[in-house]
Design goal:
Blueprint: E1 2-8, H1 18-29, E2 34-42, E3 56-63, H2 69-82, E4 91-95, H3 100-109, H4 116-126, E5 129-132, H5 139-152, E6 157-160, E7 170-172, H6 173-178, E8 183-185, E9 196-198, E10 205-207, E11 210-218, E12 221-224
Parallel strand pairs: 8-11
Antiparallel strand pairs: 1-3, 1-4, 2-3, 2-6, 4-5, 7-9, 10-11, 11-12
Helix pairs in contact: 3-5, 4-5
């Protein structure tokens, strides 16, 4: 069975970001589940929205045996609370089947100012686990949005997939594909099958539910692009 965890607003200006916590959580989950990846999704940039930096949320996509959502939530909750940062307003969402309404909510969170009550009511209506874990609990909005956007399969970028973070320097396309990326393409969609890629800070986009690395030519190698 496939599961998704969404988290948001777990950090402050002095701490490591939500993406780091999501990768840590995924690494521990990997003991019992197959991890498909950790994704970053950009939400609304607006002065009305409290944010640490760029108002992004994180999703963890994984699969394994049939667990009750509250069992997975209990683990995720502990990770967040053990790392609780003063001034943060963490939110946690856990789901398996993701209805279209949740994806629509995520897309709206990228362009509209939303309130907690809508997120909580929508999660309850569709049987998703959603809770706030401190502060004003505003992170429930981004946590639910993360699950919806990750499920849609065509939003955001991977901050962890396969072994891409183990690579360094210039690497051939074959090595990048072996590390877990599905394809390497230019912005116009033309496949790239030869040459070297500078892999530092390589963050493939999530497209059709797969990690796709977009690149552009720079002198004698390919430079990765970060797309949302």
């Amino acid at each position: 069975m496939q599961y998704m965890i969404g988290i948001d607003d777990t950090d402050n200006l002095e701490s490591r970001g939500t993406g780091y916590l999501a990768r840590f959580m995924a690494a521990t989950l990997a003991k019992d589940f197959h991890i498909h990846g950790v994704t970053r999704h950009q939400l609304l940039l607006d002065e009305r929205v409290p944010m640490t930096a760029k108002n992004s949320c994180a999703g963890i996509i994984f699969e394994g045996d049939d667990y009750h959502l509250t069992e997975i939530a209990a683990y995720a909750r502990k990770v967040i609370l053990d790392d609780f940062q003063p001034g943060s307003d963490p939110g946690l969402c856990v789901a398996s089947a993701i209805p279209t309404a949740i994806t629509t909510f995520g897309q709206r969170a990228q362009r509209d100012f939303l309130l907690q009550n809508e997120a909580r009511n929508l999660a309850a209506e569709h049987g998703l686990f959603l809770e706030g874990l401190g502060g004003d609990e505003g992170g429930v909005i981004g946590a639910l949005a993360a699950v919806g956007l990750a499920a849609q399969g065509n939003d955001g970028r991977y901050v962890q997939i396969g072994s891409i973070r183990d690579l360094a320097g210039l690497q051939p396309i074959s090595t990048i594909l072996a590390a877990g990326i599905t394809s390497v393409v230019m912005l116009d969609g033309q496949p790239v099958t030869k040459g070297l890629v500078l892999v530092e800070k390589m963050r493939p986009a999530r497209r059709n539910g797969q990690p796709v690395l977009f690149v552009e030519r720079q002198e004698d190698h390919w430079l990765p692009l970060k797309l949302d």
